[in-house]
Specification:
single chain, alpha/beta, 3-stranded parallel sheet, 3 strands, globular
Length: 173
């Protein structure tokens, strides 16, 4: 977030008036056994490096080729994002990013939280990746592990779309 601290897109979210959410916004949305089965992959030891190094922050911003539009908002805070969505009347949310089985599902602005807040959510399945080591259960390729997580999300949380669907919708508007 530091990289974006002085951008108008960050300011627009930070200054959105408080909106009372219909359910509490969790700091993290863990797997909920009352709403979903266990994940189909073992992600207890998600790193697939032969030698696991120290945990360090590797990225400080989005890829520079991603255009941030004037009307976009930037935040990593679930309440700020809910405030912004309510201010702008946003009901439909397309979620992408990494890692599908961790952040995309669990962050306070992720799939579980947005569904609980009553948003119409879709996972952009070709713009995501799982954190999965093929040496762990169910012993399938990394790509198949990601597909299994996507199938889990589609079964318990929301439908998925392709990135090209977003492009088509943008062109049609």
């Amino acid at each position: 977030m530091d990289f974006y601290a002085d951008t108008p897109q960050r300011a627009s979210v930070r200054t959105a008036p408080y909106a009372d959410p219909p359910v509490p916004i969790a700091g993290w949305c863990d797997l909920d056994p009352a709403a979903e089965a266990p994940l189909p992959i073992d992600d207890e030891h998600p790193c697939d490096d032969e030698v696991v190094g120290d945990r360090v922050r590797r990225w400080t911003r989005q890829h520079p080729d991603l255009h941030i539009a004037e009307e976009d908002g930037i935040s990593d805070d679930g309440q700020e994002i809910f405030n912004y969505f309510e201010l702008k009347g946003i009901r439909n949310v397309a979620i992408m990013g990494v890692h599908t089985n961790i952040c995309v599902l669990g962050r306070p602005f992720g799939i579980r939280q947005q569904v609980r807040l009553g948003k119409n959510v879709a996972l952009v399945r070709d713009l995501t990746d799982s954190m999965y080591d093929p040496r762990d259960r169910p012993f399938v390729s990394h790509e198949r592990g990601t597909e299994l997580v996507i199938e889990h999300i589609e079964r318990y949380w929301c439908p998925s779309i392709l990135g090209s669907d977003l492009a088509e919708a943008h062109l049609a508007s």
